[in-house]
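Intended use. Records like the one below are meant for learning the mapping from a protein sequence to its folded structure. Do not use them to infer anything beyond what is encoded.
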Amino acid sequence: MDEQRGDAEQFEYVGFWARVGASLIDTVLACLVVAPLVSMLTPSDSFLLYGGDWSDIESLSLTHTGGLRSFLLSYVLPAAIVVVFWLTRQATPGKMAIGARVVDAATGAKLSTGQAIGRYLGYFVSTIPFCLGLIWVGFDSRKQGWHDKLAGTVVIRAKKRGVEPVRFDGQQR
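Structure written out for the chain above:
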């Protein structure tokens, strides 16, 4: 039996506004890291950050060296960083700041690599229809967004008084 399953009563699900705050922290940190890298390493694409000439459509192409480099730095690098944080720390810096962790919904264990990648890709599914999959966290009994449901994850933190405790799917009720 996983150590967290026995301790489930000590945790609560993290709600919508706390997760919004954590996401804002992560977004600011990501911008502080990625924007300077993009502007230093892809000077031909720096117009994307500073409102330059949009008529140079060739530099937006992924086949263009600067476009590919910009794509890797702007999208792939942040995705890799988030997945690595989930796998090693069970949380991004924003979630760590609020004392939250992302865990397997069935066992309370650390995420598998597949779950972490699936959860990240699930963000796209969650945001495409007017961010409904993210807003869903505010209405779901386990505070799961669509990305959490797709990946089989929950976001938890130490329980406060009077809050419904966590229950993992594999736990007997």
